[in-house]
Every structure is written in structure tokens, then in C-alpha cells.
Amino acid sequence: MSEAPALHSRRPLTLRFDIPISRTHEFWDSLRTGRFVTTKCSKCGNVSFPPQSDCSRCMGSEFHWVDLGQGATLVTYTQVMTVPASFSAEGSYTVAIAEFRGGVKVLAWLEGVRAEDATPGMKLKVEARTRSDGSPYYVFVPA
Amino acid sequence: MTRVAVVGIGHSRFGRRTDVNIGELAFESIKQAIDDAGVERRDIGNVVVGSAGGWYEESLPAVVVGEYAGLSGAGTMRVEAACASGSAAVKAAYNSILSGETEVAMAVGVEKMTEVDSPTSVELIGRAGSYTWEFENYGMTFPAYYALYAVAHMNQFGTTQEDLARVSVKAHRYGASNPLAHFQKEITLEKAMGSQMVAWPLKLYDACPLSDGSATVVLASEEAAKKLTDTPVWIRGVGYSSDTANLSRRGNYVGLRAAVEAAARAYAMAKVSPGDIDVATAHDCFTIAELMAYEDLGFCKKGEGAKMVREGETELGGRIPVNLDGGLKAKGHPIGATGVSMAVEITKQLRGEAGRRQAQIKKGLGLTHNIGGTGHYAYVTVYSRD
After folding, report:
1. Do A59 and A84 fall into the same domain?
2. Residue of chain B whose Cα is closest to the Cα of A115
3. pLDDT tens digit string along A3-47?
4. What is the pLDDT of residue A86?
5. Residue A3 lies in a domain
6. Which helix (H) or strand (E) holds A27?
7. A56 and A113 assigned to the same domain
8. Does some domain include residue A9?
9. N or C: which end of chain A has fewer CB within 10 A?
10. Domain count along chain A
11. In a domain, B38, yes or no
């Protein structure tokens, strides 16, 4: 079957966003030193992840940073086989949601375990990583 | 308060529609719906277009479609509720009649997903949710999000990959009877089970395709509906809810809280219970989503979704037939068109116009369950013959 006639657009669009992190950059700064922190509302005590400068529970805007520690337990997981265009260089990767003490949950890559071999409740720890361009991110690994 | 009825329906062929642009595609269902309703275009006060957009060239689909179909001048807007954009459009059109702004309104759902390459589509859908925390560093995809639910459901309730494949086989069985479906061939359990893994444990045959398509409904007030048609299908209950952008903030991964809340609100407004529903469409973007939908809608208890499909309770002739149009899996899922397509299907079923895939209508009640994103948005609508 031949392709239907089409006008191939000649005006490609590249979007790169500068996402403001003025109020929460401490998360990324701490990650560079190996600490995994998030925000805690100074008024109602709500701990948020992702970190946020305004409290979604009481709407207060005063907060401080708390260390979540390293240990977490595996809740659910998958292995991404068909990856998005901008991840084509990564191959396949395992993604997990894990729960820290206190109930905060975090989504990140899980290294060192194939999804098929993972089990819910597995003990994990969060580790900081740095990409080749110097940008920090975090992953889970078996504890 | 007036009642609001569906008085006209239109539906394009779904699939890889490289033969039409966005305006031409929308026109197909708009023309059918206008003819079916027997309305004059000048009498349509509000045209709401449901389209997620981003994968086709036009930024303002509502006015592009309006111009192409000669509807310029009507009130219009594009609404976005991800994969529930179509139901959001129906609701916005419905509200404009309830409020007395207009006697006749139209909801058009349209999406053109195949003008960009597949990895780019995968990327655009994967970015839906929380870009910064779940996509930027972790490349989540839509199948991967639902796989997180599938794994939790399997671990907690013993649902199997074969149960999921049964949902796919069912979808393709009815898709084969729907001349407007993207896929019109039956498949075997072995074929579904043997298909390529896209996000473990979900395989290609657990996933809906990337489709182009449009669907349109014309809605009217009670007074206008009685002049226009002898077979109005009334919107009896509309329930909607939402959940967190970040999947990490959800309470559990075995059901969609937004769907449970939307269903409760729709049932309460319509004063009906799950057992009253004769026929339903459920949002089966992935097979696991259909099983969770049975549970979230109260068709069975939590954790028993797989049992329903194993025992054929949602087949034609079963206790509550679900997705007799092939569902998103076989009919296709042009994001913004899906919710309106569901309204079209339930209207056909309640009018008795569904042909080979006609459900037995006893109480005259049908239901649509339309989810946006990974349970980010939920719309449940109850339709009635009376």
C-alpha cells in the first residue's frame, strides 16, 4: 500500500523548557551531596514529594527541608521496553515506585533488578546519580 | 430544570487516516450528526471540541474545525481532559443547555495522531502527568504507567497476564463487528499472549493503538428534543473527578480513585445502581484498565475484575456487556474523540441500532466510563431511553 499524498511540513519545532526551581533548588543541591531531602510544611507538618514551596494541604507557604533517608520499600514496578523518542539512547529501563518511612512515595528508575525478578516489599535504597552533562538525578538500587 | 438529550450522532471510521486532515476528519462525524439530528447549523449555539492536540499541526482545532464545517459564529472552545477530553466536551455542551444559554449544542471529539512518527506520539503521551518528576529523568510512557497498576493488581489479587489477554480477545471479537473500528479482525489468546512486550507485563495486544478519528453528538433541551426526534437518549447522570498528576502521590495502584468518585456521583444523580445498567463502555486504553473499570464502577467487588472476564459476564448476552464496539483496544483511541465515540455507541445501543452487536436493553440504561491520563481525570455518564 503506498502512502497517501501529504504536505510534509518544513517548519520543525524544537521545545526546550527552562523550568523554574528557584524555590526548590535545595532538593537538587542536596542530591549532589548525596542527601535525599524534601519539603515539610512549617504550619501543618505535611511532608510533600515532589517538594513544593506551598502546602497543598493547608495552603501555608512556610516550609523547611527534611532528610528522607535512604531506605525505601518497593511498591510497584515495570520495565519500559518501548521508549519515548527522547530516550531512544537509553534502551530499556526498569521504573519503580517505592515508599519511604513516613509514607512518602517516589518514582524513579530501579537499577540492578529486572522487573520480572522484583517483588513488592523488597528493600531498596535511593542513590544519587549524575548525567554526563552534570545534571543530577536519583535511582533506586537493592538495599 | 430542563433535561438534556442526545438527538444526533456521527462517527468517522477510526484508524490510520492519512487520507484526511483534521478539518476533513471532524467534518465526517459533524455532517452525520447534523443530518441525524435534523437541525440547522445556525440553531447550534455552542460547539465544544474535545481534542488533546500536540500531534497535529493546528493549535486551535475548535476554530479550524468550525470554519471547515461552516459553524463559525457559534460559541466555541477546545476542552482538554487528556483521553477524557471527549466526555469533557459532552459535559460542557450539556451544561450550556442546562444553564439556558442555548437550546441546541454540539460536542465534537477529534484527534489526528498519525501525522507524527510513533516514538514522538509515545513521547507526547508519556509527558502527560508530571513532566518534571516522572518524565524528564525517567522517560515514563503511557503503557508504563498502566503497567505499574497491572503489577500491583496482579500481586494483590492474583490477576494474570492471561486474564489481561482475555480482555483483548473480547475487544477484537466485537471490533470485528464494527465497520468503523481501527481493527476488525478477531485474535486468539495465543496471539495476544505472544505479542511483543511494551512495558512489562503489558504487551502490544494489551495496548490500544494510536488512531485518528472523530465523533460528534448533537444535544438538545427537552423542548427542542421533542420537536427534533422520537428517539431521544437522555443524559441522566454526569459524574466527574480527578486525581494527582504524580503517580507517586496515589494512595494505591489497584484502582482509580477518580473513577470510583465519578461513578458514585453519576449513579447518585441518575438515581440508579450498577446493577441497573444494561450496557456500558469502559475506558480500556490498556487491558488492565478495563478490569479495574469493572471494579471501580461497582460491576463486581474490588479484585474480581478478572473473574468477570473469565466467566464472560461482560460479553454480549452476559450480565453487563462492556465495549461491544470493540473498545479503545480494537475500535481505536483517537484521544479526544473517544469520549464522544462512547456517547455515540451508547446512544446506538439504547436506540436499538447496534446491529449484530446489539445488547438486550431491559431497563433502558447505558453508561460511559472515560478516563483521562492514568486516572488523572474521570468522567462517568449515565444515559437513559426514558
Report:
1. no
2. B200
3. 899 999 999 989 999 999 999 999 999 999 999 999 999 999 999
4. 93
5. no
6. helix A25-32
7. no
8. no
9. N
10. 2
11. yes
CB burial of residue A125 (10 Å; 0-12, 13-18, 19+): middle
Q: Is residue B9 part of a domain?
A: yes
Residue from the list A4, A90, A137 with its beta carbon closest to the beta carbon of B19: A4
Q: Do residues B380 and B367 make contact, with C-beta atoms less than 8 angstroms apart?
A: yes
Judge: B141–A84 Cβ closer than 8 Å, yes or no.
yes
Q: Is residue A35 domain-shared with residue A79, that is, in the same domain?
A: no
User: What is the domain range of residue A136?
Assistant: 69-143
* Known active-site residue B369: no
Nearest to A84 among B122, B133, B151 (CB): B122
Residues A55 and A73 in one domain: no
What residues make up the domain containing B9?
4-116+210-228
Query: Per residue in B24-65, pLDDT tens?
Result: 999 999 999 999 999 999 999 999 999 999 999 999 999 999
Q: Is residue B332 part of a domain?
A: no
Q: How many other β-carbons are positioned within 10 Å of the β-carbon of residue A116?
A: 10
Q: What is the spatial distance between Cα B337 and Cα B145, in angstroms, rounded to a whole number?
A: 22
Contact predicate B4/B235, CB 8 Å? yes
Residues A81 and A103 in one domain: yes
What pLDDT digit, counting tens, does each position of A94-135 carry? Answer: 999 999 999 999 999 999 999 999 999 999 999 999 999 999
* Pair (A80, A136) in one structural domain: yes
ipTM rounded to 2 decimals: 0.96
Residue at B144 is within a domain: no
Residue finishing a domain among A13, A46, A68: A68
CATH number at B19 reads 3.40.47.10
Q: How far apart are CA B5 and CA B365, in angstroms?
A: 13
Determine whether B333 is an active site residue. yes
CA–CA dist B339, A33 (Å, integer): 48
| pLDDT for the residue A2 | 62
Domain-located, residue A1: no
Question: Three cell numbers at B325?
Answer: 464496539
Of A12, A46, A68, the domain-final residue: A68
Task: Output phi, psi for A122, to 5 deg.
Answer: -55, 140
Q: Residue B257 and residue B269: Cα distance in Å, rounded? A: 19
What's the confidence (pLDDT) of residue A56? 97
Smallest Cβ–Cβ distance between B144 and the set A19, A95, A108 belongs to: A95
pLDDT of residue B1: 72
Evaluate whether B97 touches B1 at the Cβ level (below 8 Å).
no
Using CA atoms, how far residue B237 sits from A30, B264, B267, B273, B385, in Å, is 50, 10, 7, 11, 13
Helix ranges restricted to H, chain B: 22-37, 61-68, 85-98, 118-126, 142-157, 161-175, 189-193, 222-228, 257-270, 287-296, 305-310, 327-331, 338-351
Which residue in A39, A76, A114 has the most chain B C-beta atoms within 10 A of its own C-beta, making it the best mutation to test that interface?
A76
